Structures are given as structure tokens and as C-alpha cells.
């Protein structure tokens, strides 16, 4: 310790003219006792200036552990010139450097796992976005899609500032007013009240089933009543299949099946139309309505519109259940899917991927334990969590998923709602296209990062190998002495470490993506398709810049 103190003082620019030296040391009470007598034996070049006055002190954090004897002599609060110095800066710096070094080591040795997870998530997101965008595109007129594609390319190729080109991502101002929307609702309500049900003397099967379905709709709109009008309407779908032929006339159940299928598609169209109206009203409210009273009225009106969408959703569910009972399972389920409450949303309100529970001091994330480190490679200290990583779930623009109702039932009617709705749909389609492009680029970038990581590890192994043959210190070759042999052994050790780490990364990246660990929420949600080449990212690392991704043939993860 004497040599360290003397050498540190010698390197000070004011060495030789120092008048006072404040030395803060955890055990200054012991070290300072015989300092003057020991200093007499120091080398001549390290002797303290005779004019220097040394003031020993103990850091404020360590001082409470000092004995009461001579306590005040080492108290920084009682030493003139100490100001508010606490004497613990070195300890904090050493503590932080220890953490930084540990995290750097974890990051360096954990790149295999982190890049593998990034690649897996990138492939999953790319396929999800591509599938959603493909479904939306297939249900739009081809001519309209080509026009929007041309607008996107013109915008992307335009130089900054992008003047004189149409911005395909902007959503135009809506011209609908709250009064007009209210007038439309009142007119439809008046027509419903004035409509009467005719009396049939001779009725066909289709008319009978249609009337029964109308009665069901009327009963569902009177929830909570217990009158005679709530008597159960025995449609063929409510009768057991084994008894249906004995109870119903031939062909009656087929008529109901045809009508129930049509009602499913009609209900989806009604939901989409109602959600378009809601989206336009929300856009108008957000841009034009101010004040608590007006906002409350607008919200009440918008809630009425959305209530109609939920009513159409209930009608769709009833029709789908009946159709299932009549025809059973089949390919039709891919188009007429189960309608959840979260699916009843506008194409302007895509769903976001769920976020994981947060942890103090970090972003929203979950900590997942990995496997043991490969043999011969110690990734972190034994008392630290090995292979810990953080999973941050995307919640922004790049993780949106559109509801399936906008891609079901054939081509979307772009004439419904006018030019303004078409422009809104255009903006959403263009943003969906952008999400696909960014997701594809992310897969390519992660592959390139993996390739460069392997190349870097090989480069470092080669560098350590060259140092093994010739070790220099300050530009001078170290002779074959004890120091030289030690440096040579260390170079061999580090070269082997880099190669083992590279091999471990390669082995980890060769395993299929579905073998990786999954969070609890991902067990049910991760069903995105993975290409055969995506299963082994290493097979695509070489020459990836000249390759194009093809997602047509996908397998279930």
C-alpha cells in the first residue's frame, strides 16, 4: 500500500509543491500509524515532499464501523478543507465497473441466445404480418391494390422533402357530422317501427324459416322479458339430427342451412358497415368536438352505433352455431370463424401483441432461464443468473394485427362509405404493407448480425493466435521469459475461448426454431408459419443479400 500511495502521488502534476494531502482509506487508522517511519526507507524518487501535510481520513460509509477511539481524527465532517467530500467515490466507481464488466461479459457470451431469439421472433412477426396483409389484399379489388402499390413506391422513392407526391399513409379529414349520423340512425329506427309482419295463408319453407329467424331476432332484442312471445322457436337446427327427418319435411333443414349461411355473411357486412360509421364518427369527434358536454353527447351517440355492431355480432354467432349443427365441421370454418368480442373492431383499430409483466428497473419484460452453458465456457460468475435474458413484447405500430372480419366474406365493398372511407382503407393497407416490409428487413438484418458475429469471433481467435506467436508490449517484443510464457499461455487460452464460443453459437443456431423456449403467453399464441429455410438460420447466412424471402409454403410452428 505504501508503494501505491507513493506512486500515485508521484504521478500528480503538483508533486513536489503539495502543501496538504487528504488521504481517504478504509483502514487509515491502522495504515497511518507508522507511515513517517516507513517513509524513511522509501526510494529517493518516491519520498514525500517535506512541506506536504498528510491528513488521513476514513470514508463516511465505513466510518461508523470504526472504534470510538480516535474516531473524530478520521471524520471528514471535522477535517478543515474536506467540504462535503464523502470519500466513497472510488468505491462506487469500483462497484459500477464490476457490474459493467459483468454485464459486458454476459452480453458477449450471450449473443448466441439473444440473436437466436431475435431471429425466431423476427421470423414469427414477418409471417404473421405477411399473412394478415395477404388476406387483406386478396379481399380488395386488384386494380385498387395496384394503384395503392404505385403510390407507396412513388412515396418511398421520392427524395426529402417529399413534396409533390401523394402521401399514402395520411388519413383524410372526415366530412360527416354528428347531426347527419344521428339523422341516419333515427330514420332506420323509424323504418323498423313502421315495418309490419304479413299473415301467410300458404307459406313456403323458405318464408317459414325466414319468419322464424326474424322471431328469434326479435326475441334476442327483448332480453329479460318472460312473456309468451319468448316461446322457443323450434327450427331444424334445434332438433337432434337423428330425429330431424321424422319431425321436419324433406329439404327444410337444407333451406335453413342456406339461410343461416347467408345470415352469417350479411351479419359480417353489417358489422363492417357499422364499424365504418363508428370510425368516421370517432375521427370527427377527435378533431372537432370540444368541451365536456359535447364530448359526452358524441360519446353516447358513438356507443349507440357500437351497440348495433355488437347486436349484429350476436346475430352472427347464432347463425354460425345453427349452421354448425346443420352441416357439421368443414372448410367453411376457415372463412366463417368464431367471432370473439375483440374481433369486433375497425380496420383502424388493429390488435396489439400482449405485453408481459414488468420488473422493477427494467422495461416491460419477463425473465426466462436458459439451458446450462456449453462445456468449457463460463458465461457468467457462479453466483449470477446464467443465461438470463429479457423478452420485451412489441406493442407499437410494427406489432399490429387486423381483425379477420375485414378479410372474410369475399372482396371488401370499397364503394360502401364513399371516397373518404376508401382513403382510410388505403392508409391502413399501406401501413400494413409497410409493416410487412419492415418485418422482412428485420429478418435479413438479424441474419447478417449472426453472420458477422461468427466472422468476428473467428477474427478474434486469429488475432489471439498471432499474439500467441509474437507478443509485444509498448512496441517491443517480449523475450521468452516467465512473463513471455505467461502471455503466450493467456493468448492460447483466449484463442480457444473464441473458437469454442463460435462453435457454441453455431450449434445453437442450427437447432429448429420450434425447439426454443417460449413464454407462457406464447404457448397458445405462437402459431405463425415458418419456412423450411427459416428453421435453420445458418443455412441462410451466406449470400443472404442476394436472396428474396418466399413465404408461400409455410409450416405450423
UniProtKB/TrEMBL annotation:
Domain of life, per lineage: Eukaryota
Region feature (Disordered): 511-557
Keywords, ordered alphabetically: Membrane, Transmembrane, Transmembrane helix
Provenance organism: Paramarasmius palmivorus
InterPro entries in the record: KDZ
Protein name: Uncharacterized protein
Record's compositionally biased regions (Acidic residues): 516-536, 544-557
A Pfam family hit: KDZ
Spans through the membrane: 6-28
Amino acid at each position: 500500500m505504501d508503494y501505491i500511495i507513493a506512486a500515485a502521488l508521484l504521478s500528480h502534476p503538483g508533486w513536489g509543491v503539495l502543501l496538504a494531502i487528504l488521504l481517504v482509506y478504509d483502514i487509515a487508522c491502522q495504515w497511518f500509524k507508522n507511515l513517517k517511519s516507513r517513509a524513511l526507507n522509501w526510494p529517493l524518487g518516491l519520498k514525500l515532499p517535506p512541506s506536504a501535510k498528510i491528513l488521513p481520513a476514513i470514508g463516511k460509509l465505513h466510518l461508523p464501523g470504526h472504534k470510538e477511539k480516535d474516531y473524530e481524527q478520521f471524520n471528514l465532517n471535522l477535517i478543515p478543507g474536506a467540504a462535503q467530500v464523502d470519500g466513497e467515490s472510488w468505491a462506487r466507481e469500483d462497484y459500477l465497473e464490476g457490474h459493467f464488466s459483468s454485464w459486458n461479459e454476459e452480453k458477449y457470451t450471450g449473443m448466441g441466445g439473444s440473436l437466436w431469439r431475435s431471429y425466431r421472433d423476427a421470423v414469427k412477426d414477418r409471417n404473421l404480418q405477411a399473412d394478415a396483409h395477404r388476406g387483406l389484399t386478396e379481399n380488395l379489388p386488384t386494380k385498387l391494390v395496384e394503384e395503392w402499390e404505385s403510390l407507396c413506391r412513388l412515396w418511398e422513392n421520392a427524395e426529402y422533402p417529399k413534396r409533390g407526391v401523394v402521401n399514402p399513409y395520411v388519413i383524410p379529414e372526415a366530412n360527416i357530422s354528428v347531426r347527419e349520423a344521428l339523422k341516419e340512425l333515427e330514420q332506420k329506427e323509424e323504418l323498423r317501427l313502421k315495418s309490419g309482419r304479413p299473415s301467410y295463408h300458404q307459406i313456403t319453407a323458405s318464408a317459414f324459416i325466414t319468419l322464424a329467424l326474424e322471431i328469434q331476432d326479435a326475441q334476442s332484442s327483448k332480453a329479460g322479458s318472460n312473456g309468451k312471445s319468448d316461446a322457443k322457436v323450434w327450427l331444424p337446427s334445434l332438433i337432434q339430427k337423428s330425429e330431424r327427418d321424422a319431425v321436419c319435411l324433406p329439404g327444410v333443414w337444407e333451406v335453413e342451412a342456406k339461410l343461416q349461411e347467408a345470415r352469417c355473411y350479411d351479419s359480417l357486412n353489417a358489422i363492417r358497415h357499422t364499424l365504418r360509421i363508428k370510425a368516421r364518427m370517432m375521427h370527427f369527434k377527435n378533431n372537432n368536438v370540444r368541451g365536456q358536454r359535447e364530448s359526452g353527447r358524441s360519446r353516447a351517440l358513438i356507443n349507440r352505433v357500437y351497440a348495433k355492431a355488437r347486436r349484429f355480432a350476436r346475430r352472427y354467432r347464432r347463425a354460425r352455431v345453427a349452421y354448425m349443427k346443420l352441416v357439421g365441421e368443414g372448410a367453411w370454418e376457415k372463412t366463417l370463424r368464431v367471432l370473439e368480442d375483440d374481433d369486433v373492431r375497425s380496420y383502424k383499430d388493429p390488435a396489439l401483441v400482449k405485453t408481459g409483466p414488468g420488473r422493477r428497473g427494467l422495461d416491460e419484460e419477463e425473465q426466462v432461464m436458459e439451458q446450462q452453458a456449453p462445456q468449457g465456457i463460463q458465461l457468467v460468475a457462479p453466483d449470477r443468473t446464467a443465461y438470463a435474458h429479457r423478452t420485451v413484447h412489441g406493442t407499437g405500430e410494427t406489432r399490429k394485427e387486423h381483425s379477420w372480419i375485414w378479410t372474410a366474406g369475399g372482396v371488401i365493398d370499397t364503394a360502401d362509405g364513399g371516397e373518404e372511407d376508401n382513403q382510410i382503407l388505403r392508409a391502413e393497407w399501406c401501413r400494413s404493407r409497410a409493416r410487412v416490409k419492415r418485418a422482412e428487413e428485420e429478418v435479413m438484418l438479424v441474419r447478417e448480425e449472426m453472420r458477422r458475429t461468427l466472422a468476428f469471433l473467428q477474427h478474434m481467435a486469429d488475432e489471439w493466435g498471432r499474439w500467441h506467436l509474437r507478443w509485444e508490449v509498448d512496441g517491443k517484443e517480449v523475450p521468452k521469459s516467465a512473463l513471455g510464457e505467461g502471455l503466450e499461455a493467456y493468448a492460447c487460452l483466449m484463442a480457444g475461448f473464441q473458437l469454442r464460443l463460435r462453435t457454441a453459437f453455431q450449434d445453437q443456431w442450427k437447432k429448429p426454431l420450434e425447439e426454443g423456449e417460449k413464454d407462457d403467453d406464447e404457448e397458445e399464441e405462437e402459431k405463425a408459419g415458418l419456412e423450411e429455410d427459416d428453421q435453420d438460420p445458418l443455412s441462410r447466412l451466406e449470400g443472404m443479400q442476394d436472396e428474396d424471402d418466399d413465404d408461400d409454403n409455410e409450416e405450423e410452428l
